[in-house]
Design a protein that fits this description.
Helix content is 58%, strand content 0%.
Length: 177
């Protein structure tokens, strides 16, 4: 009997998925489908994270896609697994650079996390990663249900409206007006 035969069913499944990912050039799926982060305890951080995503969506004229949101969140998870995120410079000015929307999403999420940080309600790094991975699962779920490139974002917009969250883009008044 080889070592592979002594592996549990779950270990065999993970090894098979890892081999498949290596063959196709894709990375490990980061989404978390459990319910731990959908509890009242994590509701504030989950809410703030989704408000950040929604803000980015509105700021970009509702043109972002689920794929871009997924890439931004996956980047955050990978960075956080390696260590702390780079220092966040808080600013009242949001700059949108075409082609750098992923960075905008990350900054919007982190700006919303600062609200909880100031209140002393920020969970630890592992829990933040768990919340981000839970949102990745939600992205996968809405993408598969709607087959639309903005399925999750459309869901999120409706959800935010039900909660009474209103995001409006505010532009500075110029001297000529």
């Amino acid at each position: 009997m080889g070592k592979r035969d002594r592996l549990s069913h779950d270990q065999k499944r993970k090894a098979k998925l890892k081999q498949r990912a290596e063959r196709t050039g894709k990375h490990e799926k980061l989404a978390y489908s459990g319910r731990k982060y959908k509890t009242e305890e994590f509701a504030p951080i989950l809410f703030r994270t989704e408000v950040g995503i929604y803000e980015s969506y509105v700021i970009c004229g509702r043109e972002l896609t689920d794929d871009l949101i997924e890439a931004a969140i996956e980047r955050m998870v990978i960075q956080m697994r390696k260590g702390p995120l780079p220092h966040f410079f808080k600013s009242n000015v949001i700059t949108v650079v075409e082609g750098n929307e992923e960075e905008l999403v990350i900054e919007s999420i982190r700006r919303n996390w600062e609200i909880l940080e100031e209140k002393g309600e920020m969970p630890g790094r592992d829990d933040l990663i768990g919340v981000l991975r839970t949102i990745l699962h939600s992205l996968d779920l809405w993408r598969s249900q709607t087959l639309h490139p903005q399925g999750y974002l459309h869901f999120l917009e409706g959800f935010m409206k039900k909660l009474g969250v209103s995001i409006e883009e505010v532009r500075p008044i110029s001297d000529t007006e």
